[in-house]
Write a structure and sequence with these properties.
Layout (H helix, E strand, L loop, with lengths): L4 H31 L4 H25 L5 H21 L5 H29 L2 H16 L2 H15 L1 H21 L1 H4 L1 H29 L7
């Protein structure tokens, strides 16, 4: 991972986005009760649309397959999460359906962001290393969650839950711009292909050397 610049930058973006977006889910009950004046019914609607969005986004990605450049597909997901959180944060108290739509959009964008990125990584990492690499990526991405919740709680008390949602949406938007404008990140799929071909060439060379060594060994005659 350290030697793959695009992956390192993407990992850093994942940390920042998770830091900003994770508290949005935890603070959603406060948005429902304090801003929209809702109760259990409204909170149930938010939970339902989030789940429906994730399932719908996964089915859409499975049927569509994404763009030819998978990292651009992830960019679409990042823009979707940004728009979803911005809609939740900007919706006035009288526009609960707008916030619900934003939450639905954020749920749909989640698998559209994560699916292509993980596919690109898995296509480049040798099978023997995939478990360790994916575990490390997941650990680094999620390790900031407790810290983000500790920071978001006091800030939400001072500035309101909507403030945090708006900042989270803007951070997702900025992450999408970075993926689009930084060649090492935008070209991660091409780099994955190069690494896969290099691994294949190395493996074939090792097999050839092994065969040559085997056939060059002296054979004992029958006694």
């Amino acid at each position: 991972m350290r030697d793959w610049r695009g992956l390192s930058i993407m990992m850093l973006l994942s940390v920042v986005v998770n830091f900003m977006l994770t508290p949005g889910v935890a603070l959603m009950p406060l948005l429902v009760t304090q801003h929209f004046g809702g109760a259990a019914r409204e909170m149930a609607l938010f939970e339902a649309v989030w789940g429906i969005g994730i399932i719908g986004g996964g089915l859409l990605l499975a049927a569509w397959g994404g763009l030819k450049n998978q990292m651009l597909t992830a960019v679409i997901g990042l823009f979707g999460m940004a728009i979803g959180y911005l809609l939740c944060g900007a919706a006035p108290a009288t526009a609960l359906p707008l916030a619900l739509f934003g939450y639905l959009l954020g749920g749909m964008a989640n698998p559209i962001t994560n699916g292509p990125f993980q596919a690109v990584v898995l296509s480049a990492v040798p099978p023997a290393m995939q478990g360790r690499v994916m575990a490390l990526l997941g650990s680094i991405s999620m390790v900031v969650s407790p810290l983000s919740l500790a920071v978001a709680g006091p800030l939400a008390d001072v500035f309101g839950v909507r403030f945090w949602l708006l900042i989270g949406g803007l951070c997702s938007f900025a992450a999408a711009i970075v993926v689009l404008t930084v060649p090492a990140v935008r070209g991660m799929e091409q780099e994955a292909l190069r690494r896969r071909e290099s691994e294949l060439v190395t493996t074939q060379a090792q097999i050839s050397i092994s065969r040559e060594t085997h056939y060059s060994l002296p054979r004992r005659g029958r006694e």
